[in-house]
Amino acid sequence: MNLLTTILSIAVILSSILAIVSFWLPLMSPDYEKLSPYECGFDPMGSARLPFSMRFFLVAILFLLFDLEIALLLPLPWGDQLASPITTFSWAAAVLVLLTLGLIYEWLQGGLEWAE
User: Fold this and answer.
1) 79: exposed, middle or buried (C-beta count within 10 Å: 0-12, 13-18, 19+)?
2) What is the DSSP string of 39-107?
3) Alpha-carbon span 45 to 71, nearest angstrom
4) CA dihedral defined by 96, 99, 105, 111, rounded to 10 degrees?
5) Residue 2 in this model has a pLDDT that exceeds 80
């Protein structure tokens, strides 16, 4: 019980010290550089509040979709350890065919063209 009390008290004291230091450490008077919008190290060309193009969102959604595909197919090499590996591989092939057909459709519709 003594060890548990010591560990808890050290954790509480350390957390309190870090919280107090984090409030005292930063500057409370922001300067011009802190208030200006950050655009990859370059000076902003215009207003930072302009809306993004829908093409940007389309490419971002496609990236997330194919990133999710990789996450879903990552455990596929362990699928041959199951009772019926043919079923596992057929479902994986169905996912890949569906995503490939979706990619072909977007390509043919011109959804992947950045410039109009």
Assistant:
1) middle
2) BTTBPPSS-TTPPPPHHHHHHHHHHHHHHHHHHHHTTGGGGGGSS-HHHHHHHHHHHHHHHHHHHHHHH
3) 38
4) -140
5) yes
Kindly state the tokens that stand for 59. Answer: 């490419």
| Tokens (6 digits) for 103 | 């990619």
Amino acid at site 116: E
Q: pLDDT value at position 15?
A: 95
pLDDT tens sequence across 44-85: 566 666 676 777 777 788 888 888 888 878 777 777 788 888
| Two tokens, residue 81 | 């350890």
Per-residue tokens: 111: 């959804």
* Structural element, H or E, at residue 108: helix 85-109
For residue 18, the SS3 value is helix
